[in-house]
Each structure stands twice: as C-alpha cells, then as structure tokens.
C-alpha cells in the first residue's frame, strides 16, 4: 500500500504519554509512531489498560502527550493554543464516547445540531443539517424526542449524528458499543461501516471486542502502550 | 455571524433549555427563593420610605404647608402681611396663603399645666393651607370672629391615647375652660371649642386661636410671625422661592423641607440597619444561586465535559450558567414585585403601621426597586459564574472520566 503525504490524515512520531501519580510513573503510551490514512476505518485494540483510550485522547486533542509529535491534516498540533485546539475539534473532529452523554433537556435534533450552532450556522441550516445527520443514523422519526424516551442504542445513534453534524475529517469512537446490547452494538458497527464506505468517513475506533476486527480495514494492536500492527 | 454573537446564542440556547426543559420544581423553587430575597431587600426600605413619605405629607398638611415666609433677620414680625401675600398670590401654582402669629404660652387645666405653641390664624385662610380643620375629633374648628375660644391637639388635651399623655392636660373635653398665660404675661381664659387629631405627634402639640384674639393679646395689629404658602406641586419649592424673591419678597423664605429635618435624622439612623439587612439579603440570594448552579455543574459534569470535548468553548458553558443565574434573579425580582404590590402593599393599606408621624404604609420607590434588582442580578451573576468557572478548570478527561 502506497503512502504519500496527501493520503495521510494523522501522523504521529515517537508519541509517549506518562502519567505521574505521586512517586509512581505509568507509561501509558510508549513511543508510538503511526500513520492513519484518509478514509480509513481503523480499530485500536488491545487488552484493558494497554493504552487504547490514551492513544485516542492524544490523537483527538483531549490530552497532551509527554513526548512526540502529532500532525493532523497537515497541522502540527503542539503549536495550537487551547482555544485553537477547541476550534480544531469543533470543525474537524467528531467524537462518540462510551457514555452517550446527550443533554436530557434537549430533543434528539437539538442535541445533534448544537455543534453546528456553535460553528455559527443559522437555525434553518442547523435544522437541515441536523435532520440529514439523523437520517444517516436512521432516527429521523425520533427528531423531536427527548433522550429519556429513547433506548440506549438510539441515544448512542443520536450521539453519532451529533458527531457527524459538522462533517468531521475524523470520527473518534471510544468503545461506543460497550454499554449496548448485542443487537444495538451490531447496528452501530454497521452504521460505522456504511459511513466509511458511503461517504469515505475516516474512523478511529477503540474496541475490545475481538470480532470487531472483521469489520474494519485495519487493526492497531496495543500492548503495554506500544503498537503491534495486524492486518484487518 | 461574528463569533461573539454565535457564542451568546449558544449560551442562551443552553441556558434556556436547562431552565425551561430542566427540572420544573428546581426552577420554581429557585425563583421563589429569589422572590423572597427580593421582598426581604425591599421591605425595610419600603417601610422607611413610607415613613419618610408619611412625614412629608404630615409636615406639609398639618404644620408648615409647602413654603414658609418668615420675618427678615432681626425682625420679630412681618409687617403688613397682606402686601406680601399680594405679591405672590397670583404666581401660577400658588393655591393658598395663611398669615399666622406664633407665640409660646403656658396652658393650665385644673392641676395640670404645660408649655405649648399657640398659633393664631384667620380660619378661612388656614383652610387653604392646612388639613387640620378637617381633622377635628371633638367639637368644631374656629370661625373668623371667635373670641375667647381655643382649639387644641390631642397631645395637649390628653385622654386620646397620644404618646405624650404624661405631659398632657390629662383629659380635657370640649367646653372645658383653660387658663392660658402668654409669654408677654397676659393671662386669659379660653373655652375649648374643639380638639383635633392629625396622627402626627408634632402637629398634635399645637393650639389655635383666631387672629383677632391674638392681636388683642399682643396689642399689635396687621403683623404676622409667618406666612404659610400652599403650592399645587411638591418638590418644586426652590423654583417658587426664586420667583418670590424676584417678585420683591424681602422676607426669609424657606421650603417645608427645612422643618422636616427631625424626621430625616430619625430615618437616617435606620440607614445602617437598612444597609445591613440589604447586605444579608444579597448574600442569601447569592448563596442560593451559588448552590443551585453548583449542584447543576456537578450533576452535568460529564455532559459538560463531553460538550467541551466536541468543541464547545468553556466561555460558552460558563456564560450559559451565568445566564441561568440571571434568569432566576430577573424572575425573582418580578415575582418579588408582584408579591409586594399584590399582597404586602394592599395589606398595609388595610392595616397601616402606627408611628409617631402617623399611619405608615409601604412605599415602593422606583429607584430603590431598580437599585435592589440590579444588586440582586449582579450577585446572582457572580454566584452563577463562580461554580461554573470552577467546573471548567478541571481537564476535559477528568470531567468525563474522573470520579
Ligand atoms: N489519568 C490517569 N492517571 C493515571 N494513570 C492513568 C490515567 N489514565 C490512564 N492511566 C493508566 O494508563 C494505562 C492505560 O490506560 P487506558 O488508555 O485507559 O487503557 P485502555 O483504554 O486500553 O483500557 C492504564 O495503566 C491506566 O491505569
Ligand atoms: Mg479505555
């Protein structure tokens, strides 16, 4: 597989993250050098505590590495100020967490378009794009429902629609199905697969379900904070 | 759209959803507490303002009218008061004048006696500047040609539940005869023609005889100790003063406010108390808001962490909480005003508080209400800012996964 600069959306060089807790130091990430290509659907896998979430947080600009470089979409990340980083996340990233954490006071649609509103879109544009995003996750019929009227799987799909609203360059997901039953989990994974295939969405997903490896393009296997690649 | 308006829009949207679509009970309870804090802030002030207002009215209605013309320096009397009255009576806004003699006297009834002021008036003129003629509780007011008759306030008469019962004449009634010794030594007997009650301790310590009666006591004619002037507006006394001087009045002209000083100092001594209750009120309101917002930031910690993760600025989140706090405060002020105007003010109109200056009801001054509303809103904004500012201090990862 040929790799040129154009194709690479995330590049890390010698990335390390060490947590210091009192006198104890935990090396959660150890010298990770890694490229992710545009349009790739990659899974980060490994045992519990192997550093999967830590890696995702560094790439998703939610944490600062102790050492090493990250370049995303041609931008060297360490040069960003805190507010530039916030804006970068708003414009270029979508996140799906294990906790769907959508706001209970808002309808599905409002939850979904909040990031578009923060980008300065008008109400009409927000509604149009919000409905498009809900359409992608198959929840148009639920647009005006509040979270408490939805199942866990539906709430997670609302969170995915929210992650998609600003047409992110990269979609990050940290064990998005961990809290869901197997039917809902399957739906979510299929949704990711479709998004990747139909609109070329780049997806970086942490998972500990071994069978998820079958559905992705590539598995990045972590052991004690270091990368051991495997074919998808 | 500029980024600032966008931020404000998102903050307002979040605040609106949290308050309108959040827990109704919390919202209503918070607004109720804010309303009570506002009422607490307003109540003492309204009582003091009501006292001040009652005093002003009493001083004007029963003691000095709006403007008092006194003899120029070194003079004891105003000579030819009619000529002074003629100069000012046609000034627009002047609706009455009354030239009076004022003298001290010892009044005795049986074993009791005391020193009081006696005013001598032309009853017809007096009615144009004073409400005392309408406040008779026994007998009648003077008529122009009465001689040998006196009317007295309840604090002189006694037996009407006045505050100065111990120094009164101990229960004089209409028809009793009083022995009056004037400061110039003249002693006369007067029949009590009437007793008045103004509800105002100072005015109730006056006695009145007719002008003709006093001129025979003093042995002078066509003089006055003071001329009271009634105007159709209150608060424009300075304008009238200037006009009177321009019209050639050389006497000493004073507004009624000069005479209301005693009560002004009385209410001033309450200012410290007022400031203290105010400070406590703002503090209670601030703490309430602080707790409400604090609890909200704790219960929404994870959700807010995720909003920050997906790119919602911290300033937007802080501002959404400040907006909520301000919303609670604004609703509280409005609800507080409704409570005051719909419940408390009517209640005290029905059951006024009895003070030495008369019956006092609550007076809600616009300025006081605005100042306290602003104060409440500012303390709410600060109280909303602090916990939300503190909440976004922690890292995004701690907010989402911390314990
Ligand atoms: N905030 C933290 N402070 C200290 N140690 C941490 C922190 N976050 C993660 N770790 C440690 O780093 C290692 C990797 O954690 P994590 O990335 O969450 O693993 P995974 O997601 O693969 O289960 C673990 O040993 C974990 O205990
Ligand atoms: Mg993890």
What does this structure look like?
The complex is a heterodimer of chains A (232) and B (403). Chain A has helices at residues 52-59, 82-92, 108-118, 123-136, 152-164, 182-199; strands at residues 8-21, 24-37, 41-46, 67-72, 75-76, 93-96, 170-174, 202-206, 218-223, 226-231. Chain A has 6 helices and 10 strands. Chain B is α+β, with helices and mostly antiparallel strands and 403 residues long. In chain B, strand 7 (177-182) and strand 8 (187-196) form a beta hairpin. The chains are: A alpha/beta (232), B alpha+beta (403). At the A-B interface, helix 2, strand 6 and helix 3 of A face helix 1, helix 9 and helix 12 of B.
Reconstruct the topology from this structure.
The complex is a heterodimer of chains A (232) and B (403).
Chain A: E1 8-21, E2 24-37, E3 41-46, H1 52-59, E4 67-72, E5 75-76, H2 82-92, E6 93-96, H3 108-118, H4 123-136, H5 152-164, E7 170-174, H6 182-199, E8 202-206, E9 218-223, E10 226-231
Parallel strand pairs in A: 3-8, 3-9, 6-7, 7-8
Antiparallel strand pairs in A: 1-2, 1-4, 4-5, 9-10
Chain B: H1 3-20, H2 24-64, E1 67-70, E2 78-79, H3 81-88, E3 94-109, E4 112-121, H4 123-129, E5 136-139, E6 149-153, H5 154-157, E7 177-182, E8 187-196, E9 206-210, H6 211-218, E10 223-224, E11 226-231, H7 237-246, E12 252-255, H8 261-299, H9 301-309, H10 314-350, E13 353-355, E14 358-360, H11 366-391, H12 396-401
Parallel strand pairs in B: 4-9, 6-8
Antiparallel strand pairs in B: 1-11, 1-12, 2-10, 3-4, 3-7, 3-11, 5-8, 6-9, 7-8, 13-14
Helix pairs in contact in B: 1-10, 2-8, 2-10, 2-11, 8-10, 8-11, 10-11
The structure holds adenosine-5'-diphosphate and magnesium ion (MG).
Magnesium ion (MG) is lined by residues 52-53 of chain A.
């Amino acid at each position: 597989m040929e790799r040129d600069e154009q194709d690479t959306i995330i590049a890390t060089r010698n990335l390390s993250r060490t947590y210091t807790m009192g006198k104890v130091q935990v090396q959660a990430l150890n010298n990770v050098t890694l490229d992710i290509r545009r349009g790739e659907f990659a899974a980060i896998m490994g045992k519990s505590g192997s550093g999967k979430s830590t890696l995702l947080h560094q790439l998703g600009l939610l944490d600062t590495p102790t050492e090493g470089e990250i370049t995303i979409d041609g931008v060297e990340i360490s040069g960003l100020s805190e507010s530039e980083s916030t804006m970068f996340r708003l414009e270029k990233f979508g996140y799906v967490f294990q906790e769907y954490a959508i706001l209970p006071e808002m309808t599905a649609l409002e939850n979904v378009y909040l990031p578009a509103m923060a980008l300065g879109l008008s109400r009409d544009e927000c509604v149009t794009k919000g409905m498009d995003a809900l359409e992608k996750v198959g929840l148009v019929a639920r647009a005006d429902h509040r979270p408490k009227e939805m199942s866990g799987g539906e709430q997670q799909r609302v969170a995915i629609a929210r992650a998609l609203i600003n047409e992110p360059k990269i979609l990050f997901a940290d064990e998005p199905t961990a809290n869901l039953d197997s039917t809902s989990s399957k739906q979510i994974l299929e949704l990711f697969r479709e998004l990747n295939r139909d609109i070329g969405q780049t997806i970086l997903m942490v998972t500990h379900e071994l069978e998820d490896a079958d559905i992705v393009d590539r598995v990045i296997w972590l052991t004690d904070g270091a990368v051991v690649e495997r074919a998808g | 759209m500029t980024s600032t308006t966008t931020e404000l829009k998102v903050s307002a949207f979040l605040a609106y959803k949290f308050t309108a679509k959040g827990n109704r009970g919390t919202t209503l309870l918070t607004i109720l507490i804010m309303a009570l804090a506002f009422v607490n802030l307003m109540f003492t002030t309204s009582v003091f303002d009501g006292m001040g207002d009652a005093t002003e009215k009493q001083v004007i209605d029963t003691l000095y009218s709006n403007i008092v013309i006194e003899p120029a320096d070194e003079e004891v009397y105003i000579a030819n008061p009619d000529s002074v009255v003629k100069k000012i009576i046609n000034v627009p806004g002047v609706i009455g004048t009354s030239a009076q003699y004022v003298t001290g006297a010892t009044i005795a009834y049986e074993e009791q006696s005391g020193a009081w002021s006696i005013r001598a008036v032309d009853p017809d003129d007096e009615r144009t500047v004073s409400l005392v003629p309408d406040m008779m509780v026994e007998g009648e007011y003077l008529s122009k040609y009465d001689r040998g008759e006196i009317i007295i306030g309840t604090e002189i008469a006694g037996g009407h539940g006045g505050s100065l019962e111990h120094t009164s004449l101990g229960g004089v009634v209409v028809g009793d005869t009083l022995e009056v010794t004037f400061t110039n030594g003249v002693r006369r007997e007067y029949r009590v023609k009437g007793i008045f009650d103004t509800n105002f301790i100072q005015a109730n310590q006056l006695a009145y005889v007719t002008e003709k009666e006093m001129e025979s006591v003093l042995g002078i004619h066509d003089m006055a100790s003071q001329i009271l002037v009634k105007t159709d507006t209150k608060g424009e006394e300075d304008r009238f003063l200037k006009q009177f001087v321009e019209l050639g009045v050389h006497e000493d002209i004073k507004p009624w406010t000069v005479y209301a000083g005693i009560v002004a100092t009385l209410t001033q001594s309450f200012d410290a108390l007022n400031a203290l209750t105010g400070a406590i009120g703002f503090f209670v309101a601030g703490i309430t808001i602080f707790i409400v917002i604090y609890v909200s930031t704790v219960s929404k910690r994870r959700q807010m962490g995720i909003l920050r993760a997906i790119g919602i600025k911290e300033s937007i989140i802080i501002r959404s909480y400040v907006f909520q706090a301000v919303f609670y405060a604004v609703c509280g002020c409005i609800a507080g005003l409704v409570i005051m105007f719909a419940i408390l003010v009517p209640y005290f109109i029905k059951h006024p508080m009895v003070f030495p200056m008369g019956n006092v009801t609550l007076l809600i001054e616009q300025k006081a209400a605005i100042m306290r509303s602003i104060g409440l809103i500012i303390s709410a904004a600060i109280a909303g800012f602090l916990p939300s500012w503190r909440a976004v201090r922690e890292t995004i990862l701690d907010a989402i996964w911390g314990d």
